[in-house]
Design brief:
The chain is of the alpha/beta class and 255 residues long. The chain has a domain at 2-129 and 240-254: Spore Coat Polysaccharide Biosynthesis Protein SpsA, Chain A, CATH 3.90.550. 26% of the residues lie in helices and 25% in strands. The protein has helices at 33-42, 59-69, 102-112, 133-141, 202-208, 217-224, 245-254, and strands spanning 2-6, 27-28, 31-32, 49-54, 86-90, 119-123, 126-128, 146-152, 164-168, 174-179, 188-196, 230-234, 239-241. The strands form 4 sheets. It has a 7-stranded mixed β-sheet, sandwiched between helices. A two-stranded antiparallel sheet has the order 2-3. Strands 7-13 form a two-stranded antiparallel ribbon. The longest helix is centred in the N-terminal third of the chain and has 11 residues, at 59-69. The radius of gyration is 17 Å and the shape is globular. The relative contact order is 0.17.
Length: 255
């Protein structure tokens, strides 16, 4: 399994903190968000490689970070304490105006690293308690299905205009999705953690060429409904989407 971490955004809502620093390298509780995410992937014990997709502006910063881990495939070094090789990719974009978008960056990683097996996709601005072993085991049990991690925020009103809302059957099968609805029907939202079996990877390119491609992964998930089996798996405990200064401050107070 390869893990792809999407870190090519410009995080303008977090200025001035992210003017010269990628959001994923902001610290919460004395450690960067990226450190915490990579630890979750490493703890799985079966990842062949972690691929971080960034942009031209922050490529140098991420290369510096990964060099300190001793796991940079490009440097020819042996994996360090984390034991999983890390590759940083520069998608060549320089601003919000010419960015590839989340799914464009996913396809970029698939092409550059020639990924043909199962893939774990993670947003680089998520903080969460629970480990990923249960999620991956559930996803693998569904064989050819695409799976997403879910979080229950309780009150559906809290998701209005902010999160993708997902409704599932007791089996976990997704039967309805709405991307950032103003009047949500449920309080179950996507967490920015996804699993793709190898049979689903061609759907990424198909989506991008459909003419209906949206930037956020939620649009892709919604497009997948009816084209492949789609399941959701709730992760319990704390979760923060570090999208703005308020969310960052709240996370720092708690962690």
């Amino acid at each position: 399994m390869r893990a792809v971490i999407l870190a090519a955004g410009y995080a303008t809502r977090l200025y001035p903190l992210t003017k010269d620093t990628p959001k994923c390298l902001l610290e919460v509780g004395g450690r960067s968000i990226l450190d915490r995410i990579v630890d979750k992937v490493t703890a799985l014990g079966g990842a062949e490689e972690i691929v971080i997709v960034t942009n031209a502006k922050f490529y140098g910063k991420l290369k510096e970070w990964v060099a300190k881990q001793g796991t940079d495939l490009d440097s020819g070094s042996d994996p360090g304490s984390r034991s999983v090789p890390i590759t940083v990719l520069n998608d060549g974009t320089t601003s919000n105006e010419n960015r590839l978008g989340a799914i464009g960056d996913l396809q970029f990683a698939i092409d550059k690293r020639r990924i043909t097996g199962e893939l774990l996709l993670l947003a680089s601005d998520n903080l969460f308690d629970q480990g990923l072993a249960g999620f991956v085991a559930f996803a693998r049990s569904k064989q050819s299905a695409v799976c997403m991690a879910l979080h229950d925020i309780g009150d559906p009103k809290l998701a209005a205009g902010k999160y993708g809302v997902i409704e599932i059957h007791p089996s976990g099968e997704v039967f309805r999705m709405e991307e950032k609805p103003m009047e949500p029907r449920a309080g179950t939202i996507g967490m920015g953690v996804y699993y793709f079996p190898k049979t689903a990877l061609p759907l990424v390119k198909r989506y991008l060429s459909s003419g209906k491609a949206g930037d956020a992964p939620g649009f892709f998930m919604k497009w997948l409904v009816g084209k492949t089996d789609l399941f959701g798996y709730p992760l319990k405990g704390m979760w923060y989407d570090i999208g703005d200064l308020n969310a960052l401050e709240e996370a720092r107070k708690r962690i």
